[in-house]
Amino acid sequence: MRIRIVDAFTDRPFRGNPAGVLLLEGGFPPDAWLQQVASEVNLSETAFAHPLPPGGDADWALRWFTPAAEVDMCGHATLATAHVLAADGLAEGLIRFSARCGVLTAETAADGTITMDFPTSSLTPVPAPPAVDHALGGAPILSVHDTAAHIGDLVIELADEKTVRELEPDHAALRAFAKRGVIVTAAAEDPASGYDFVSRGFFPAFGIDEDPVTGSAHTALAPFWAQRLGRTELTGLQGGARQGLVRVTLAGDRTLLTGHAVTVVDGELLTAP
């Protein structure tokens, strides 16, 4: 059974966010087997997809697993799956995925970029939870927004880009503050840098201390920064030691996420379901 590792939101290997991708011929195997494969791959997400009968609302069924659990939405592993389908000649143009969060689409352009259409996450201003600043190493907090109704992340605005980049949080302590994870963000320091804002994402509750580039988090970061910067087309840089770029376009209740992907491992999974 063929398995790929694809670096998403980057145009070169060993950057962006790696995802496992496994294309299946029939339906999904038992959940326990899917979880074992994801744990063995041991990346932030492994995507599993199989084709659907023609004439329906979607072309492929898609699920995502972290090393510890299944998740409702994942941007970078969706991008990685679309990249694999296009590379294998199994899909052209627009691909429709049926997932736990609804129907998502991904479209590959002539230049190789892939644009995904995801639901925009709503942001609710909330007071900073007690001790969250301590969990973030004492970093000064400017604002806090909750996305519990959608992706389940806490979006925390910090003072500046330098603070975000140098952050050394207490990952175990962060588990207490959000349904899914904690996103920290700040405006870009240099307008000529090629990106408008920076972010980092921490998901210890799902077995991921830090996710290098979280596509789904940008469904909240897009409206957050669109309101502050007065533009609906923005570019975000996410990551600590490993980084990637996400171009976002806010279109009301939908957010378009655009990036590149590159396959770095193409191998064989020897243990069948």
Automatic annotation (TrEMBL):
Signal peptide feature range: none
Annotated SUPFAM superfamilies: Diaminopimelate epimerase-like
Swiss-Prot/TrEMBL keywords: Isomerase
Presence of keyword Isomerase: yes
Transmembrane segments: none
Family: Belongs to the PhzF family.
NCBIfam families reported in the protein's UniProt record: PhzF_family
Protein name per UniProt: Oxidoreductase
Species name: Streptomyces amritsarensis
